[in-house]
């Protein structure tokens, strides 16, 4: 099967800065793909390479089998939802959505009908007459989405599309985007620095750091079996365990990771397990997060609410299933 | 609330403000009054009588029409040149980063910061060095140097407030460079260009210093007025022309002011 987007040893350097460095990547057709990483990790540059706003310094990019290097943005069947939405302030909502069809020479009635349909798709029917300045952040985001989708792109690129929305709205938009993607069957490529967003929405996630891809995989895979210390730490703040510790408790001299929710905290000091001392407690609602000191190592554990929470400074005993301690490929 | 706006200012300040405004604007009114005087050899106060005969006299003078025609043509062509060059320069400076960007910005603004007499002498010696005869086009070139600045300043301010991602969004949606300019850039900077163009036109229309250095035998309207002051007959004709010029330049400047003020709201609405 031809990949929707393929990077082969693709690099984009700005002088001495290697924004994207020899990235190999295949995005499957119809996939909801997330690019996750801290700011400056190269994920947005990758998106701009697909959109055509940047050209690779070396390597190649193909979109549905067609070479994309040197093809300007306006000749690619790819559309973008921009981080700041970039709605045209001088046009009303309907003309904003119809813009792509207008420049392609589609007649006024036809393009306005298509724009109305697209607005209905993003649940903003009847908003066509308003100016972008009269809309709320969430509504502008939907207009930006409709403006991209009306062109029936093969790949839809989303650059931190939920970043400017408040938490409640962000959660409902996450669900809505996911449903929309399923219904339309379009390949979505989504850039975010929020690991929760990436894990909850994407079919597959690529974790970026320093212009390179650290790991690509399904959300469960990334979360449960991080390949490196960076991934373990960045995705869901896992406990990263040094080789000494892992050797003592699992018998192998490798870096390991252990999820905070996989650690059981026992208050019975005589029990079997690892002795620890509670440093601090953070109440999170559904659970309480404990910061623990284990032989000079700082670990985190979550205790579900409803169970007894130990006091600050109390000595506790930690236990975990050995098969949940994930050994990372990265060598010590 | 130390500066309460509804509280009225002290009387002394009011009088000073009124005196300042009177000092600025009474002489202009005086010009208007002298356009109706019956005395034609000197400016005598109070005017011995009032008449409207000078309007007919002005209308009948071919040298007025010639000077006016030349001024309008010079102003129109230098504004057109300034609109093209000023917009291009503003686009380059505000949309891209390159070595020497700030220096270019300064160099463009320099002609209006320098005294006109420096620009005039510089152009005159450059023209004679290049053996270009003084003509209509040397006046246009001289005026374009400061008209570009006005257009550039207006356009660059608007470009800075226009989000760069609008251009990317347009390209992303399938518009090539020309379509993006026509449908996105022009509507967003249009009022700024109109305002800049009007100001440039008004500046060129009443320019004296650079014109005296770059003109040959041609007389633009301001030059004609200067020469007219030393002639003993039909003095109020100059006042009639001055009055028309004041009205004709005041309107575009007021329009430019309102256009750019509205532009603030348009640009602010996007965020």
Automatic annotation (TrEMBL), chain A:
One of its GO terms (molecular function) is ATP hydrolysis activity. SMART domains: AAA. The keyword ATP-binding applies. GO terms for biological process: putrescine transport. The keyword Nucleotide-binding applies. Keywords: ATP-binding, Nucleotide-binding, Transport. PROSITE patterns: ABC_TRANSPORTER_1, ABC_TRANSPORTER_2. Residues 5-235 form the ABC transporter domain. InterPro entries: AAA+_ATPase, ABC_SmlMolc_Importer, ABC_transporter-like_ATP-bd, ABC_transporter-like_CS, Mo/tungstate-bd_C_term_dom, NA-bd_OB-fold, P-loop_NTPase, Transp-assoc_OB_typ2. GO terms for cellular component: ATP-binding cassette (ABC) transporter complex. Belongs to the ABC transporter superfamily. PANTHER family: SPERMIDINE/PUTRESCINE IMPORT ATP-BINDING PROTEIN POTA, SPERMIDINE_PUTRESCINE IMPORT ATP-BINDING PROTEIN POTA. This is Putative spermidine/putrescine transport system ATP-binding protein. It comes from Aminobacter aganoensis. The lineage of its organism: Bacteria, Pseudomonadati, Pseudomonadota, Alphaproteobacteria, Hyphomicrobiales.
From TrEMBL, chain B:
Keywords: Cell membrane, Membrane, Transmembrane, Transmembrane helix, Transport. InterPro entries: Bact_Polyamine_Transport, MetI-like, MetI-like_sf. The chain crosses the membrane at residues 12-36, 70-91, 103-122, 134-152, 240-259. Its main location: membrane. It holds the Pfam family BPD_transp_1. SUPFAM superfamilies: MetI-like. It is found in: Cell membrane. It is a multi-pass membrane protein. The keyword Cytoplasm does not apply. The keyword Transmembrane applies. Residues 68-256 form the ABC transmembrane type-1 domain. One of its GO terms (cellular component) is plasma membrane. GO terms for biological process: transmembrane transport. Belongs to the binding-protein-dependent transport system permease family. CysTW subfamily. This is Putative spermidine/putrescine transport system permease protein.
